[in-house]
Specification:
The complex is a heterodimer. By secondary structure, chain A is an all-beta fold. Chain A has no helices and 18 strands. Chain B is 0% helix and 51% strand. Chain B is mainly β. The chains are: A mainly beta, B mainly beta.
């Protein structure tokens, strides 16, 4: 069997038997999740915006910043920025509010993972993970656990941040147009981050930068650094067991 | 294991091992379900209204929106007039997909809190299409609390014949887990995991001849804003 059941708290997780950090789904008490293979995406008929997300669009330059399901075997979401630096899209799961992830007062596991590629890895900014409500992650957030690649760099970093104090760990050097799988799993004690199935970093939740006193939410932000750019995301999953 | 697989008709349900009446999901032939942990909710870009529900909103100030809460939650806030609030039925103008005319199991469950228990109306469960649920429906299985009282009733109703199978006093601000399971023979209501009452399908009050749908109503009972916070909502029916 390539997918197995794994008991976590009062829930059961379906995880990969080969890559046990990879969670596919969970059922039971306290499970909160968002699981997308992008066969489709609930979207507003008039605006085209994803209706399960708070979407902030920046498009000062030529063209438009869009997010729409596209033609890719297995499904994908295509995020396209307009042409000016910092044009792009910030997406936070929920509405104006919607922080559902709590890593404090208990040991509440959290898995976040995605597979994506970026057309120009050093002329864009990319953020993926969980953090507090903020529509400008490139400008800095206060609390979160997320993957980050900033403009003028192809390096994807893991950031563990509390109260504006960051612990940053280099995870990988991305390549234009090449898919990369970025995942992290907090098991209630340690945060382990993976790139393309390989464990890259292990961080204990005892570090001062571990965000244990703020509610957070699933977030994706993709911005141009120079010209119109694209990010193609094949899947995105957040599974949190809060009980 | 705290969640177990349980064969039901030609499907399989995932249910709680400690509370077997509590179903988390189901897969297989004839499964119809709505499962919400309120990490998010598909909502209209302009109005903010939930797009998978037929909603009747009395006042412009009636708002239902995802809120900040560990584990996710949907926040209902009424306008400030008596009977302001929400009637929401899953689907569109039509959408009755539950029919209990045989051994077709149905699980319903939610966890919610209301900020004040006396001055509000609360109705949650399954019912025929109706835009004034707490006032009266003809057929349904539901939990109901009417304005002016604190008593929550577990009601099984067919053609306006009600069987109030159980009651309990509510507490303001306290989260309560409301569930019922029709196992093909009895429908059993639960409050915070404990049985509240049961009705056999042979009862005259058992709604076995009408299609129904997942339904929710929350209304203010005074000239004041009232709030209901819902942590999860699940309906699983196996035809």
């Amino acid at each position: 069997m390539t997918v197995g059941f794994h008991n976590v708290k009062r829930a059961v997780v379906l995880r990969d038997n080969w890559y046990s950090h990879r969670w596919y789904d969970a059922y039971g008490h306290g499970v909160v999740k968002y699981i997308q293979d992008f066969a489709t995406l609930k979207s507003d008929a008039a605006t085209g915006d994803a209706t399960e997300w708070m979407v902030t669009v920046t498009e000062a330059g030529a063209g438009t910043s869009t997010h729409v399901v596209t033609d890719v075997a297995g499904g994908a979401l295509l995020i396209t920025t307009a042409a000016d630096p910092l044009d792009g899209i910030n997406m936070q799961l929920g509405a104006a509010a919607g922080e559902s992830i709590s890593l404090g007062i208990g040991e509440f596991p959290l898995y976040i993972g995605a597979e994506f590629c970026i057309s120009d890895v050093d002329q864009t900014q990319f953020f993926l993970g969980c953090g507090v409500t903020d529509v400008d992650w490139a400008g800095g957030i206060t609390d979160g656990i997320y993957f980050r690649s900033v403009d003028e760099s192809a390096v994807l970093n893991l950031v563990v941040e509390q109260d504006n104090v960051e612990l940053e760990t280099a995870m990988a050097t991305m390549v234009d147009g090449t898919y990369i799988r970025a995942e992290f799993l907090y098991d209630g004690t340690n945060l382990r981050a993976y790139i393309n199935d390989n464990l890259i970093a292990t961080i204990a939740d005892t570090v001062a930068t571990f965000p244990n006193d703020e509610l957070m939410r699933l977030t994706v932000e993709f911005l141009s650094g120079a010209a119109a750019s694209t990010c193609t995301m094949k899947w995105l999953r957040m599974i949190h067991i809060y009980c | 294991m705290t969640v177990e697989l349980y064969p039901v008709n030609n499907a399989i349900a995932l249910r709680d091992a400690d509370y077997p009446h509590r179903w988390y999901d189901a897969f297989g032939e004839g499964v119809v379900k709505y499962l919400q942990d309120f990490a998010t909710l598909a909502s209209d870009d302009t109005t903010g209204d939930a797009t998978e529900w037929e909603g009747t909103y009395i006042d412009a100030a009636d708002v239902h929106v995802i809120t900040d809460r560990a584990g996710g939650a949907l926040l209902f806030t009424t306008g400030a007039h008596d009977n302001d609030g929400f009637t929401m039925q899953l689907g569109a103008v039509a959408g009755e997909n539950i029919l209990l005319n045989g051994r077709y199991p149905l699980y319903f469950g939610t966890r919610l809190a209301v900020d004040e228990v006396i001055q509000c109306d609360l109705f949650v469960g399954v019912a025929v299409t109706d835009v004034a649920l707490a006032a009266a429906v003809t057929d349904g299985i539901y939990f109901r609390k009417v304005d002016g009282g604190t008593v929550l009733q577990f009601v099984v109703e067919n053609t306006n014949v009600e069987d109030i199978a159980g009651t309990i006093d509510l507490v303001a601000g306290a989260y309560m887990e409301l569930e019922f399971l029709f196992d093909g023979e009895d429908v059993i209501g639960y409050f915070n995991g404990q049985e509240l009452g049961r009705v056999n399908k042979s009862s005259a009050a058992f709604p076995d001849d009408q299609e129904m749908r997942l339904s929710f109503e929350f209304l203010s009972g005074a000239v004041a804003v009232k709030v209901c916070t819902m942590e999860y909502l699940r309906m699983i029916h196996i035809r």
